[in-house]
Amino acid sequence: MPIPSGGPAVDRSLLRDDVYRRLRDAIVDGTFQPGEQLKDGELAAWLGVSRTPVREALLRLGASGLVVALPGRSTRVSTIDSPAVRDARDVIAAMHELAVRQTAGRLGADDIARMREANRRFAAAVDSGDIDAALDADEEIHRVPVTVLGNRAIETVLDQFDPLVRRAERLRFGRDGHASVELHTRLIELIAAGDAPGAASVAFDIWHTLPPEDRAEGT
User: Fold this and answer.
1) Domain limits at 54?
2) Is 20 a domain residue?
3) Tens of pLDDT, residues 67-124
4) What is the CA radius of gyration of the chain?
């Protein structure tokens, strides 16, 4: 689709990370479609910034696998490639497994309550077909143990590879995300009970519920 017209511009004082997040989210939510060409000048005008942070953001998006840059030609949104998503998913699953294993039994009552509330919102979003709300709630559930652990290395890995998997997850939640509600419930209760091995196993398995047919585009 063409660059969106109108909409609030990014404040010129925002850091490069904010430009990156805006472009990343526009790819994940489908504003920019697979195969679409991204021109730094048009993107800079849309966001209300110079071309420099846009070019830096595109480089980061390339490292995450969300865009493909052809030297001297163009930068395009990548397709949802099964092997690439599979690899990213496996890394993400391992990171969440580690975070949950190290925080099970250590999360406070407020943390557990936040996860339960996010799962309630997730269930409601799935029932209503609100994919964006479902993805937001799902991310909040899984981010609680990661945030509590405070391992910057894990956070960096997730920031790099999570968007690639989130694009594929939109397809799954668009079809049926009800099975994830029960998996989230099991995860939360095992964490609350301090069952580190059990919670870590569920955390790992959750990310492997993304079936092969949902990880490829056009298949």
Assistant:
1) 16-77
2) yes
3) 998 777 789 999 888 888 899 999 999 999 999 999 999 999 999 999 999 999 999 9
4) 18
